[in-house]
Design a protein that fits this description.
five-stranded mixed beta sheet, binds uracil, 42% helix, 4 domains
């Protein structure tokens, strides 16, 4: 049998191999007839290959005898497999490509030795990517002489020694993660460069650079202070952080002494008195710094109240919201309008009803002939509740606990403004104002009084403008919007001083 020697660069990714493999498959050259070699690899050193070009030339001189197709799943597997550094990878990939011609379901045969080997190699590549994502440490490149910091993106440099040819695989991860800085990652298997616009991968091997940005001490302090002596598991640490990565990880110098001192530190910690956790959240810190006169439970005016609401940590919503959105409007407003909670735009602007629902409310008030400036607008819950979907913040209804935590603020707003009419928009403020017993479907569009004599306050329950937005245009949307405007028109009775 004629044998063909096909030689590839060690860094060769999928494409160069694919060209050669396609030529061989089209000429029905069986796997046993090909020696896949790596340029500069062991066999070369012993001088057995003299002319790299020979094998491919001889092979392509033969006539094409068949057409070759590979399924997308097979191409994906081979592409992943060829990132491995095993010198046998090209031969294994060709054997699979050859065998799959006769058995299209080969990839599903879990007991097949070639497929098992390929899958193990793919998994090893993934592990290598994972280790690179976890153990790579960037150092900042200092400014060059004469260079200005202003307007220049920060530049970082890292050195890593991957086991396999994974740079092209992992590059998008780093550009997504560190998109706002320029960086270069150097490795013995090539480099990746990112300048905020594009990624450049090069297979050219690099030398380890001098990496010292003066932050080593800071990093050591950070690592040592976050090292938990009570959770030292040396076996698991070794498994997760194999020795070959240690030499490039600055913190590994500290690990032996941290591990050695762990038991003693745990004993000291156990003997220490309990201390409150440091107030790391800006709103907790702000509350600690609130002037003593603002500390009493009941605010004296709307400004005091706003200062307190802004430092509220009574429920977890304050952690994810940008800020508390306090009420807005004249301190002597005769009408108070209570919405559900700030939306995305209100959360960013720090003002109620400035987003799409606020716009609808604004237009409807105009149609009803009511001056928005005369109203005090607020919400039952002062922080925005949302869930993340990608980068979008999707509104979520507040729960009873959030409403209850915010109720004291709403009660104080009512006590300070003493409105004649309180309009609730939607079910959440209805529950906050009147308790859980009242159903929106029973009271929508109706009004009633609460309290007696000069303490009597009118209540009016209307739909929430977001609900109207969701209904959109069409028969139901139009008639509900009309109903909303008619409801708002009743506010006119209260805006002039003679109103009830
Ligand atoms: N929806 C509300 O309930 N309140 C706002 O402030 C904005 C939208």
């Amino acid at each position: 049998m004629t044998r063909y020697v096909l030689t590839l660069e060690d860094s060769a990714a999928f494409e160069p191999w694919r060209e050669m493999a396609r030529a061989a498959l089209q000429r029905a050259i069986p796997p046993e007839a090909i020696d896949w070699r790596i340029r500069g690899g062991e066999t070369d050193l012993f001088g057995q290959i003299t002319d790299d070009g020979d094998g491919l030339e001889a092979l392509t001189a033969l006539p094409v005898v068949k057409t070759v197709t590979l399924r997308a799943s097979c191409i994906a597997l081979l592409r992943d497999l060829l990132c491995h550094s095993d010198p046998g990878r090209f031969a294994l990939a060709y054997r699979i490509a050859w065998r799959v011609q006769g058995n299209p379901h080969l990839l599903e045969v879990v007991t097949d030795a070639d497929i098992t080997r390929a899958r193990i190699m793919v998994r090893q590549n993934r592990e290598d990517c994972h280790k690179m994502a976890s153990f790579l440490r960037f150092r900042e490149e200092p400014l060059q002489q004469g260079e200005e910091q202003d307007g220049r993106r920060r530049r970082f440099l890292a050195w890593f020694e991957p086991q396999h040819h994974i740079l092209e695989r992992i590059a998008p991860f780093f550009s997504r993660r560190f998109t706002d800085m320029d960086w270069v990652i150097l490795t013995p298997r090539g480099s990746i460069r990112w300048d905020g616009k594009g990624l450049v991968c090069s297979p050219e091997p690099c030398k380890r650079p001098e990496l010292d940005d003066g932050f080593g001490e800071l990093w050591d302090t950070y690592y040592a202070s976050t090292f938990n002596p009570a959770r030292v598991r040396t076996k698991a640490m070794r498994r997760e952080m194999p020795g070959r990565y240690w030499k490039n990880l600055p913190e590994t110098r500290l690990i032996p002494q941290l591990v050695a001192g762990a038991e003693a530190r745990v004993r000291t910690m156990a003997e220490q008195e309990l201390r409150p956790a440091p107030a790391f959240h800006e709103r907790l810190r702000a509350r600690e710094q609130l002037p003593a006169e603002l500390m009493p439970d009941v605010a004296e005016n709307l400004e005091d109240l706003a200062a307190r609401v802004r430092t509220c940590t009574a429920c977890p919503l304050h952690c994810s919201a940008t800020q508390a959105v306090v009420g807005e409007g004249p301190a002597d407003a005769r009408i108070m309008v209570v919405g559900e909670q700030p939306g995305d735009q209100e959360d960013l602007a720090g003002r109620p009803f400035v987003g799409p629902a606020g716009q609808l409310l604004h237009e409807a008030l105009g149609e009803a002939g009511v001056d928005r400036g005369a109203l005090y607008l607020t919400n039952a819950v002062k922080h925005f509740r949302f869930r993340l979907q990608g980068r979008r913040r999707i509104h979520q209804n507040p729960e009873a606990g959030h409403v209850a935590a915010c109720r004291p603020w709403l009660e104080q707003e009512i006590a300070l403004i003493r409105p004649k009419l309180i309009v609730s928009l939607g079910a959440t403020p209805l529950r906050a104002l009147d308790g859980p017993g009242m159903a929106m479907s029973d009271v929508r569009g109706t009004s009633w009084t609460v309290g007696r004599g000069e303490n009597a306050v009118w209540r009016l329950a209307l739909a929430h403008p977001s609900w109207l937005l969701r209904l959109g245009e069409g028969a139901q949307g139009d008639s509900e919007r009309q109903r909303f405007v008619e409801g708002l028109a009743r506010l006119r009775d209260f805006t002039d001083q003679s109103g009830s």
